[in-house]
Amino acid sequence: MKIIAKGKTAYIKLEDRNTGELFAQAAVEQYPSSVVEAVVDSSRYFVIRIEDGNGRHAFIGLGFADRGDSFDFNVALQDHFKWVKQESDLARQEAVQDSVPKLDLGFKEGQTIKINIGNMKKKESGGPLRSRAAAGLLPPPPAGKAGAVLPPPAAHTTTTTAPAPPSTGTLLDFGDSAPIVAPPSQDMWGDFTSAGSGSAQDSRSGSGWVQF
User: Fold this and answer.
1) Is the pLDDT of residue 10 over 90?
2) pTM over 0.90
3) CA separation (Å) from 120 to 81, 116, 132, 202?
4) Three-state DSSP state, 178
């Protein structure tokens, strides 16, 4: 058995398996129809209406041993007529579109248009300075003071007065204003002798140290 589509008609052909000779065929113009009918109590059996081409026809039973084969037979016919329906709908839509007059939206020769965009504003004078100020940046100095240098900000200065160094005369003299200075000794070794005399006496009175 073969299913062959020619235009909008599907042909079910029954041929000899060995020789390929045509035994019978059924021309199906719509599905489901009286040409192909499924039996009530099984999905594997159908009744088809065959013709010999001379106007004679007969109804024969068609059965499939495998349920998968009967499913493929049914789906093949459904897909074909689904395609036929889509083609008919497209042709109908094209006919409707052709009947409606088309609008010519193209530009004529020499025709121009003008577009106003409301969100765009003209640039004002000082616009860049205003935008820089809005961004937190200082504007540049005026043209007349281009070479001027701004003074640095005044720093906080603290003056600390250091205490005066102690006066030597104050330490040496508590009553008089002038310090008392001892006269210079004529003996170069006198100071050492006088300084060591007391310690020498203490050493003689104490332990057995000998003064040199």
Assistant:
1) yes
2) no
3) 58, 9, 20, 111
4) coil
